[in-house]
Amino acid sequence: MVLCVAWGVCCGGVWGEKVFSGSKLQLPWAVSAPLTVGFVVATAMWLFFPPVLRTGAVEKVLAEFKVFLDFAKVTMA
Predict the structure, then answer these.
(1) With contact defined as beta carbons under 8 Å apart, do 6 and 42 qualify?
(2) 43 near 6, Cβ under 8 Å?
(3) What is the distance between the alpha carbons of residues 69 and 26, in angstroms, rounded to a whole number?
(4) Are 47 and 3 in contact (CB under 8 A)?
(5) What sign has the CA pseudo-torsion 43, 48, 53, 54?
(6) pLDDT tens-place string over residues 3-44
(7) 3-state helix, strand and coil shares in percent for the chain, rounded to the nearest 5
């Protein structure tokens, strides 16, 4: 939830800056793409992954996938 709010606030800030300043500044793709990807990855690592890891969801998914693979091996054989 906080992650989506943070991304929304940042998008609104960028939009507001462009609209109200009248700036026509356009960064090159080679600069803007890594900045955008870096921002998304950094905020996801900071706000999204800690709750997922803390609840043990990763271990549950991996265990479920192992059961699925065992089932697939049995049915394919």
Answers:
(1) no
(2) yes
(3) 48
(4) yes
(5) positive
(6) 888 888 988 988 888 888 887 777 888 998 999 899 989 998
(7) 85, 0, 15
